[in-house]
Sequence to fold (598 residues):
Amino acid sequence: MDALLAFLTVFTHPELLLMVGLGTFAGVYVGAIPGLSVTMAVSILISFTFSWEVLPAISLMIGIYMGGVYGGSRTAILLNIPGAPSAIATALDGYPMAQRGEAGQAIGVTTVMSFLGGLLGIAVLAMAAPVVSDFALTFQPRDYMLLAVLGILLVGSLSTGSLVKGIFSGALGLAVGSVGLDPLTFTERFTFGVPLLQGGISFIAVMIGMFGVSEALIQLQHVNSAAVRQKIDRIVPSWGTVKKHLPLSMQTSFIGVIIGALPGTGGDIAALMAYDHAKRVTKKPSRPFGKGAIEGLVAPETANNAAVGGAFIPMMTLGIPGDAVTAIMIGALFIHGLNPGPMLMVTQPDMFWVIVGALVTANCFMLLFGLTGIRLFTKLVEMPRAVLIPLIMLLSIVGAYAVNNSVTDVYWMLGFGVFGYFMRHYGYPLGPVILGVILSRLLDDNWRRAIISEREDLGAFFHGIVTSPLSLALSAAVVLIFLSQTPLWRMAKEKLVHRRTAAS
Amino acid sequence: MLPGVVVVMAAALVAFGMVLVPLGFVPAAAIFLVLSIRFLSGRGWGFALAVGAGSLVAIWLVFRIVFTVLLPAGILPEAELVQALRDLFAGGTR
Fold:
């Protein structure tokens, strides 16, 4: 009963409803305008909302997240420029449809399918999270430590394909996160005697630098690419179209939830995997894939919105973010004095249900804004980058300054911005850096707790890992990720295939 | 090879950071916005001035008044301006 009341909080408080609505509206445009990303918007917003109550702040961020994941598809369809990474797969069939003059239909199908996928993702979140968090209460500190390592490795290996670059990014994040006073004994770490470093590096400065300034610097290279105009007519899709693709959308939604729930992997990977799945299972697509098949639009769009609900599962139950945006939201909750994880679910279950309610509301707003306001949309997307980029930079500076009212944070932000530019330039993923910074505290705390509970005996620690099935499974997964990138793995696979062919 | 435009903008950002406190947010941001829009768009000073000033006013109103973010005041009598605006709105609703 309490859960239901908390779930309805958003609907009964006009202020929260307004925040979710505003957030979703802004999110659709942030997601759609190439050069603005959801991660960027949410990380800049943290610093402006930290003096607010926690609920309005989180409602606004949830709205932006939900709207942004959807908004990316717009420009992918109209301009063949994915507004967000999660819309890369959408462009494959969406743009060919627009070229045939079916942009309206493409947008309509995308909107309805995003809504369905989002709803399914939230439903899974609402059902799975309480179960997972009960289970998570039995986790030992060493299990949390292993989960954190696994999360960083997963995002590192899946986001670019190069595990070495992923590990470098993750390790950089962990190193940045551990600068300052150690939480247990207050020993200085990585401060090199500089008093400025004792307080640590503000993770918000790191986020804004990495996702705001560095992105803006990269965008400078395409500053003069012209905007293309598109004519759009009817966009509400017929019920028949929706019904026909319902089975596929259910399958791809589940792919989305599962990929989203894996620590570190988000909508972009989910969308690509769903597209791949659709290609394999659709016997008779409306047109060949890549030439404007509706199936190629349904699959990634349901999956990336379903991944939103999925990403909240590890965030709420374990305190381990499902992707970069939830990593930033964990940071926002930290600032408001909340510590996401199984204990939060036990002590403040209302918080969880309010978030679920906000997600549902954001999903409905998304449907509303998606099917209306096309004309305003085409105007806004044509905003020249020569204006947009300086504004992003200005907002990044304001945001970095606002958190602590300190210019030092502005310098950190600019430093990480320029550094992030080079990382992007040379193909290093930035997601693992943020994940590392956020997870460094969890990893650190739990490693210390684990080793203290074993009386600082490494032998006993490893004995604990080997005897607990969960710890063993997690360590095996960590080892497997490493092995999968070595020649050893390929050799083993070849041998296996060889034996199978020999047997048959 | 680094594109020149990136180097210029990065340098402009660092310069912005350095003058932020002594000059104050509004003058520093105005100079930064107008110069960078002029530089990036390649259009006239009129365009850069209008767009830069317009968006700066919007940003300042949203963040300083709505979000009540503290920004370095610098050389501008910002506190008086905020108070005057508050009085204006308080008078309007009464």
